Amino acid sequence: MYAKILVLFGLALLPQLEALGTFDPNVICGLVVNGTKMNDPRACNAWVQCIDGEPVSGTCGSGLFYDRESEECLASDKVKCVSSDPCAALANGFTADPYSCNGYYYCQNGKGTHGACSPGMNYSPGTEDCIRNFPCAAKMDPDSICNILPDGVFIKDATNCNGYQMCWNTQVLNGTCPGTFYFSASAAECVYPKDEVCAFTPAPVIAAEGVCPQAGVFVSDNSTCNGYYYCRELADGEISLEHGVCSEERFFVATDGGACVPRSKVKCDYDRCVGLGNSTIQLANESNDGCRGYSLCQDGSVIGQGTCPQDEYFDEVSQRCTTQVISYPACQLSSDTTVAPEAEPTV
Ligand SMILES: *[C@@H]1O[C@H](CO)[C@@H](O)[C@H](O)[C@H]1NC(C)=O
Ligand SMILES: *[C@@H]1O[C@H](CO)[C@@H](O)[C@H](O)[C@H]1NC(C)=O
Ligand SMILES: *[C@@H]1O[C@H](CO)[C@@H](O)[C@H](O)[C@H]1NC(C)=O
Ligand SMILES: *[C@@H]1O[C@H](CO)[C@@H](O)[C@H](O)[C@H]1NC(C)=O
Ligand SMILES: *[C@@H]1O[C@H](CO)[C@@H](O)[C@H](O)[C@H]1NC(C)=O
């Protein structure tokens, strides 16, 4: 269950830490192996090295730029400086926007003003003007960590326990550890989960006003018959939503603080095939049809519908049409049935 919550909320988090606009050496140093040295994206002559998880910065001598591949300071004309600050390499004059084909910067005393060519024109660094259809090689992704790290360095994915990335020819390659292994930033490899504290804690999803009647109750996720949220009170008094799923053959009802009850007792208008039809096709009745119709379920989704012959009722429990009158609350026509909670969902 806990793992499911991690995955669910992990997907909702965008991997923002890559954004160079908010370059934070402290964050990156928590994700790479001890000793990793990188270009400081804010300047051409500066570098950052991660020592025991802490960033240590340095700058090159006069006239030298930091070269991330050789990890040395080289003559500035020998290093193609790619920086989030385009005026880092050129104090005065025009320079191309490293991230777009038609953009350029005018730098004055190291401060840049952005400009853009008219539509259809690209900036030509050689002639310093805008030329129609001037050929432009693919530009870099402004948010890529591969703008600053050398090729071949592993970077732990901060949004989950088992993912990592690596830069190759300035492209980001994504990887995932096999099976249950976790990626260890300090070892730069996949390790047994017992050997790695996965510090990834998802940011809580704060419940909007009115979603939770009070803390400590369960509410429907309003998209599946068996999914719910637990309303957990946080230290600051806000309420977070933690997603969960009822065990097999049970659907969620929100009455009395929420419960998972046998599916035949629950009227639910979302896909009733959820949890059915994994290995063979299974049948599920439909809600509100007097227990005459059924759905064909495969891999948890409806793939078709049917109706029992006249005077017959569909019995989901025996999976067949029968002349016996069936009146499960789930498929009854009028919905005045009250359902007693039988099992608390678990979190
Ligand atoms: C990390 O690297 C630094 C410099 O290379 C070294 O002095 C230090 O002992 C290393 N720390 C660990 C935990 O290996
Ligand atoms: C790698 O993963 C990131 C998110 O973690 C995603 O934005 C990116 O598109 C992926 N790249 C590739 C090549 O799959
Ligand atoms: C789902 O709908 C019910 C009834 O409208 C509402 O009380 C509940 O807060 C909703 N759940 C979520 C997660 O929005
Ligand atoms: C369909 O009816 C069966 C009994 O015939 C019941 O167990 C089941 O919950 C019902 N399903 C739906 C979708 O109404
Ligand atoms: C069907 O598959 C889903 C997803 O793989 C799983 O969560 C569910 O427990 C399975 N149900 C049964 C009855 O095996």
From TrEMBL:
Record InterPro entries: Chitin-bd_dom, Chitin-bd_dom_sf, Chitin_bind-dev_reg
PANTHER family linked: CHITIN BINDING PERITROPHIN-A, CHITIN-BINDING TYPE-2 DOMAIN-CONTAINING PROTEIN-RELATED
Any one Gene Ontology molecular-function term assigned to this protein's record: chitin binding
One Pfam family recorded for the sequence: CBM_14
Glycoprotein listed as a keyword: yes
All residue ranges annotated as the Chitin-binding type-2 domain in the record: 26-83, 84-138, 143-200, 209-268, 270-333
Signal peptide: 1-19
Entry GO terms, CC: extracellular region
Name the UniProt record assigns to this protein: Chitin-binding type-2 domain-containing protein
Organism expressing this protein natively: Drosophila ananassae (Fruit fly)
Keywords: Chitin-binding, Disulfide bond, Glycoprotein, Repeat, Signal
